[in-house]
Design a protein that fits this description.
Two copies of one chain form a homodimer.
Chain A lengths: L3 E7 L3 E8 L4 E8 L3 H4 L2 H15 L7 E8 L8 E5 L4 E5 H9 L3 E5 H12 L8 E6 L3 E7 L2 E2 L32 H4 L1 H14 L16 H9 L3 H25 L3 E5 L7 H14 L9 E3 L6 H15 L1
GO cellular component, one term (chains A, B): cytoplasm
Pfam family, one (chains A, B): ROK
Organism (chains A, B): Candidatus Egerieimonas intestinavium
Chain lengths: 318, 318
Amino acid sequence: MADYCFGVDVGGTTVKCGLFRVDGSLLEKWEIPTRTADGGKDIIGDIGATLLAKMEERQLSREDFLGIGLGVPGPVDQKGIINGAVNLHWGKKDLPAELGGITGLSVWAGNDANVAALGEMWKGGGAGSRNLILATLGTGVGGGIIVEGQIVTGSRGAGGEIGHCRVNRQEKEVCNCGNQGCLEQYASATGIARLARRELAASTDGSVLREQPEDSITAKDVFDAFKAGDDLAARVVDKFALYLGNALATFATVVDPEVIVLGGGVSKAGAPLIQAVQKVFREDAFHSSKDVPIVLAQLGNDAGIYGAAKLAIDKGQS
Amino acid sequence: MADYCFGVDVGGTTVKCGLFRVDGSLLEKWEIPTRTADGGKDIIGDIGATLLAKMEERQLSREDFLGIGLGVPGPVDQKGIINGAVNLHWGKKDLPAELGGITGLSVWAGNDANVAALGEMWKGGGAGSRNLILATLGTGVGGGIIVEGQIVTGSRGAGGEIGHCRVNRQEKEVCNCGNQGCLEQYASATGIARLARRELAASTDGSVLREQPEDSITAKDVFDAFKAGDDLAARVVDKFALYLGNALATFATVVDPEVIVLGGGVSKAGAPLIQAVQKVFREDAFHSSKDVPIVLAQLGNDAGIYGAAKLAIDKGQS
């Protein structure tokens, strides 16, 4: 009986691995380093080796496994082919063929942010829902869209690339993607720090944020100051919330979700962040979506392995 | 053998009906008036009667039919329950139960704009695609989203309500939906006329649009003047294209479509309209989507009956 599956989340620094039962229980998780040298040529082999070692250690055979779910940081098409991953130094790769060849197991792959959205739908902040938007507010802004329980992969594997909607056509600085004025430039950790530096430069108003070197200001500093009642920090949070809340309301007109989940390092600011974003969202959303809850992600760094496991379970059992 | 189906598109003035073969050929189409008096209580009965009459006329039995697909102007959930339709004077209605009860046929219903998107994907401007955004630029702005061949219904039947994304938080006039600054206020026929009146009021620049009473200016007048080289009309078209092109680029970050289809009366302006919108879309879209074609809808008023038939075929054969 195929009672087990692996959920694997490939990041630029570490590969997170989880051994799951198909009922959804996580039996064990571990990490290996991501070796990105030489075009990341060792990464797939390393993943295959650690999974095979785990099977041997647990005395499990191929027949015990439904397969492997894999989340990777790049655009992945419906067939599991990734068309380049900058952080892994990868070009185009057929993941089911390569990792399947090494392990002898079925492999299903998805974009890491999309897979994390599936994880949050399954066991996290969106548990019980089938239509969900996840926005991951980290160094950049990633996202994943789930419609009727399925990842929206899109025609080029770019479904859910919501960090790159253009929210400000007046922006002069260039986003990592090459455009100017992407949501990521205001709603990521680096974006919030940039908004703070701009707000500091725009006035001489007092603020605790002036007590440290400008370049050292982080999104956490901004939210800490906001929670302590700092007016200038509150203006920064308002701008962040305006861009993000408005964009989420627009995304909601497209997919009409049951729930919106915010994850990533920035979301650790917690309830005050949620309240600020929800306020703008309510103002801007279409009437039938105004009460859509905006909640915090719950799985943290494990969203990827959970979602990858869920992908394997859904695909392997269909 | 169930070789036939009906595709029915319920509008506020007429009900359009099509008799299809399940291979996709339209055998006959006709219309009946929509009787909206007394809460639209006669509409479903009228539809049932005309379909039963057609079956008798053609000497076809229930066994010859896969069923009925129905597009209706309101939010329809996954079960085919409509939660109010202003134009039909309807409250909540279980369409499969009511129309199915009269006809003895299986009934699948969807929102009219969503169903039209399915039609354009099947036999219209998006033929051959499986991931599509349709924006219908009429009196209002409607829309339909198709992901992997399926309508995005959404959790409350409001999937694809893209006319009501809030694109201008500075707008003072109120949209029909109650919000201020919806895309519909700039990209619909009435919205383009409003933009023209504002542009005329903002300057004394010469324009052929000044040669008629302001209240009589239509979107067609604006595009006709634009095509004839009128500078003021060109500024109106630029504003329209800026709002619509930017919004489409944002929608594309969510669903990563293969093609974007523009329909509705405004789209009759043709190639110059497409070019204006495509230019902004290219500037604003995420890099992998910049080359997504924006094309004209091809089915005109028949998109609804085609899409409704396709809905019946997909659901009836699955």
